[in-house]
Design brief:
The complex is a heterodimer of chains A (216) and B (639). Chain A is an alpha+beta fold and 216 residues long. Helices cover 48% and strands 18% of the residues of chain A. In chain B, the strands form two sheets. A six-stranded mixed beta sheet of chain B has the order 2-3-1-4-5-7, with helices on both faces. Chain B is built from 28 helices and nine strands. Chain B is α/β, with parallel strands linked by helices and 639 residues long. The chains are: A alpha+beta (216), B alpha/beta (639).
């Protein structure tokens, strides 16, 4: 488990430094929920392996090797989680917990193959692992592009305007929910969708922000 | 005293439940967002005084909209002793998400499963199991059939707050953040866990209580989450909540096999591309025709009934007791009674009956969807249709209802349209009862055409002038149901009672003052200074200025006053036909249908948009009314 722990540290540092910043020992300790002393010890090991540079009293930053390794683990996590959800149909919470363990034991090769099966999500970056060989497959199609009677699961919402996203989720357009199109109304007019027990009309612009994986 | 607050999703039936619990009638309709103000009432049960507080409907407690902020603020100010989450049992998931939020914040929650009568036709609901899972009191009720209302009140009396074992479990990273934030999330009366979640959702009202360092910490968590999960944290929180809601719904509700009902098929047809528009045309046509036919029938009926019952007894009584002045004064009272009866019942009440039926049927949101594209040309979205319909009744609730269109800009455009181009029921009575009756139905039709054109002109012009902030239509379609006669009758009375208790006395007082002025020959001195407007510009008798002036107080008084004025110079009961020519009735109708907002509308505009905008709308409408009147007068005198 020692190496798993090591990788967890790298991931936490990646998260704190955002790749090129400096992370304070105390912050790492807080994030890992351990004492500063044990953090210092682990940091020394990582520094010995030249994964991080460690400056006393200042903090740590990732070396290029460390950064690459941390990103690879992060990618494995994402791929494993999506694989569990999309292919094995596990629910999100379980998939996440399991992916947290898989990220440490999954070989690069297996991860790449899984990535090819699920297709990289538009928002994820699996570059550290797959390089340019991975074809990014947009997940889902926009709600305004499906036709009447089609059904599927909402995969994600995409919009720069946080207000619109909030509006959509507050009326129930939430990833993971099953949705179907009831009918279009007038041309370019709002579209009526059914979710749960309710029919909701959405205008075309809002509908285009919601992406759905259509049932085959 | 036990203080109870009702919260729930829009159209979950909070207001119906409020009425059932307290016996106090409030306006209830079958679409989201009917309640825009707080309602309060007290009820006594088994010796306990229960004070019930109805809040506007909200989808969530996340401060996403004005209503949500309003409800959140009301709850942070004072949680009360019990919070009843009103859930729509026929549409459980969304309601349950709101319930989760309330529970998470540590509010003293009782879950009322409303619309149980509808739900039981579609599902077998295991209420006991739901109570076990959520670990809070769950009471099935139906505000429509009064089922379970007593149980709910009893539960309120017995309620004792205890910690619930249930909580929504979020993604492990989110749970970790929540733990980290527990210390910073201290708000009196709220559970720190719920507050922590609100912080992560970036609820502005709660976030603003934190120091900059703490805010940065929350922002760091949110951006870190987004980077590692490829999804923003509030989307993920919602995902976890809906996931949980779906699991519970599946556990407690089993679908019963049934056929699609007629109303469901009709519901689909009402918005489908091929049938929706023809159906909308049909509904509007039937509404319009039945209004015209029934109103003229009612007017004649009331007139003849009044004549046969009261006859000239009032006038005779006046003459006997007060001589010539007495005759004149009682003559004024007689006309006032007649005016208010023939004005309010055929036009105003009838319109409210029709509006009530449309509101309660659930059809209006369908019309909204169909009209969305058209409304966009006016810088509005389809949701604007409902305030416009309400505005044909009265502009005051219509202006309050403009809150459904989110942006200030749209609200101002819509309110201007409502004030200037949508005739309120009193203006409708003038158009139909004065112009339509004495200048022919065609003349009334000309005014309706002019007003329709104005809707587009105002909308398009204002849309050009004002900065563009688009908002989008997202609207839930309520079930189509058969309206209840009781509710329609109640709403009609509630919306019309002011005409009897305020307008009627005012009209009598006004008529008495007029008769006295006339008796002492002082009337001309009052009306003469305005003759430039009435005679020169509009080509009307100078005395009509009095109708215009009282029209500022209340619009229906303008017509009532016109009846009285016509009676002054005539021995005939109304004497309207001899008082003005058909052309003059048309000009009068044109001016009155646009004219200055009445005092109540002025006040509500002021409150909602400030004095500057209000003054601008008021003066513009006055100017447009006079200009349109002058133009009509000029054109008519040429023809």
């Amino acid at each position: 488990m020692a190496s798993g722990n090591r990788e967890d540290y790298l991931l936490r540092i990646l998260r704190l430094t955002n790749g090129d910043g400096i992370a304070k020992t105390t912050d790492i300790a807080a994030l890992m929920n351990v004492s500063a002393a044990s953090v210092t010890e682990m940091l020394r090991i990582l520094a010995n392996d030249e994964l991080i540079t460690y400056k006393k009293y200042k903090g740590v930053s990732l070396t290029p090797e460390g950064l690459a390794m941390a990103k690879r683990i992060r990618d494995k996590h994402q791929i494993a989680e999506r694989f569990l959800m999309d292919v094995l149909d596990k629910d999100q919470g379980d998939a996440h917990e399991e992916a947290c363990k898989m990220e440490h034991i999954l070989s690069d090769e297996s991860a790449r193959r899984m990535c090819r099966i699920v297709g990289a999500a538009e928002m994820s970056d699996c570059e550290a692992l797959c390089g340019s060989e991975c074809i990014k497959k947009a997940s889902g199609i926009q709600l305004n592009k499906i036709s009447a009677g089609m059904a599927g699961k909402i995969s994600h919402l995409k919009c720069d305007d946080a207000e619109k996203i909030r509006k959509l989720i507050s009326i129930g357009f939430v990833p993971g929910r099953t949705i179907s199109m009831v009918n279009r109304t007038t041309s370019n007019g709002p579209i009526i969708f059914r979710m749960g027990e309710s029919n909701i009309a959405l205008d075309q612009e809002l509908a285009s922000l919601v992406f759905v994986n259509v049932d085959q | 005293m036990i203080r109870v607050t009702l919260i729930g999703q829009p159209n979950a039936g909070k207001s119906s439940l409020f009425t059932r619990m307290t016996g106090v009638g409030v306006i209830i309709s079958n679409y989201a967002g009917t309640t825009v103000e707080f309602e309060e009432a007290t009820v006594v049960r088994k010796g306990n005084e229960i004070h019930v507080h109805d809040l506007p409907g909200t989808h969530s407690l996340s401060g996403n909209s004005d209503e949500e902020r309003l409800v959140m603020n009301a709850l942070t100010d004072d949680t009360g002793d019990v919070v009843i989450v009103v859930a729509d049992a026929s549409n459980l998931e969304g309601s349950m998400v709101l319930c989760f939020e309330a529970m998470e914040l540590g509010l003293p929650v009782i879950l009322a499963l409303n619309k149980m009568d509808i739900a039981s036709k579609r599902f077998d609901t295991d209420v006991k199991k739901m109570r076990e899972i959520l670990d809070i009191p769950v009471i099935p009720v139906s505000a429509r059939s009064a089922l379970g209302i007593d149980d709910l009140l009893d539960e309120v009396i017995l309620y004792e707050k205890k910690e619930t074992n249930f909580k929504v479990r979020y993604d492990s990273h989110i749970e970790k953040y929540i733990n980290d934030l527990l210390f910073t999330s201290k708000i009196k009366g709220f559970d720190p866990r719920g507050v922590a979640v609100k912080l992560l959702e970036k609820d502005t009202s709660i976030l603003s209580r934190l120091s900059d360092a703490e805010k940065n910490n929350v922002n760091r968590m949110a951006s870190e989450f987004e980077r590692t999960h490829g999804e923003s944290i509030n989307v993920h929180i919602a995902r976890d909540r809906y996931g949980q809601a779906g699991v519970i719904k599946d556990a407690v509700q089993k679908k019963t096999a049934r056929e699609r009902t007629f109303s469901e098929k009709l519901s689909d047809a009402a918005t489908a591309p091929s049938t929706g528009i023809p159906l909308l045309m049909f509904v509007l046509f039937v509404t319009f025709i039945s209004f015209i036919l029934i109103s003229s029938f009612l007017e004649d009926l009331i007139n003849s009934v009044y004549t046969s019952v009261a006859g000239d007894s009032l006038k005779e009584f006046g003459e006997k007791t007060g001589g010539e002045l007495g005759l004149a004064v009682m003559g004024g009272v007689d006309v006032s009674i007649r005016a208010i009866l023939t004005l309010v019942i055929p036009f105003i009440m009838l319109f409210y009956v029709i509006l009530g039926i449309l509101e309660d049927s659930g059809y209006l949101p369908r019309a909204v969807v169909l009209l969305d594209r058209t409304m966009h040309r006016l810088g509005l979205h389809g949701g604007a249709f409902i305030p416009m319909m309400v505005g044909i009744g009265c502009s005051v609730p219509a202006i309050l209802a403009t809150r459904v269109v989110a942006s200030k800009r749209e609200r101002l455009i819509l309110s201007t349209i409502i004030v200037m181009a949508i005739p309120c029921s009193a203006q409708l009575a003038i158009i139909m009862g004065a112009t339509g009756k004495y200048a022919g139905i065609l003349a009334a039709f000309v005014i309706f055409l002019m007003l329709s054109a104005m809707i587009f002109i105002i909308g398009i012009l204002m849309n050009r002038w004002m900065k563009y902030e688009p908002t989008n239509l997202a609207m839930e379609m309520p079930d189509l149901v058969m309206p209840s006669a009781r509710n329609v009758a109640f709403k009609t009375w509630d919306r019309c009672k002011d005409f009897f208790i305020i307008a009627f006395p005012l009209l009598i007082i006004g008529s008495i003052i007029l008769e006295v002025l006339l008796h002492f020959g002082a009337l001309d001195a009052v009306v003469e200074p305005f003759s430039f407007i009435t005679v020169t510009m509009l080509g009307l008798p100078p005395i009509v200025i009095i109708a215009f002036i009282v029209g500022i107080v209340r619009k229906e008084m303008a017509l009532g006053m016109l009846f009285i004025l016509a009676g002054l110079n005539s021995t005939d009961t109304f004497g309207m036909a001899g008082f003005m020519s058909p052309d003059q009735f048309l000009v009068f109708g044109v001016v009155m249908s646009i004219y200055f907002p009445c005092l109540a509308v002025f006040a509500v505009l002021w409150k909602e948009f400030g004095i500057r905008n209000t003054a601008m709308i008021a003066l513009t409408s006055l100017a447009v009314a006079l200009l349109a009147g002058t133009a009509f007068n000029a054109i008519l005198s040429i023809i």
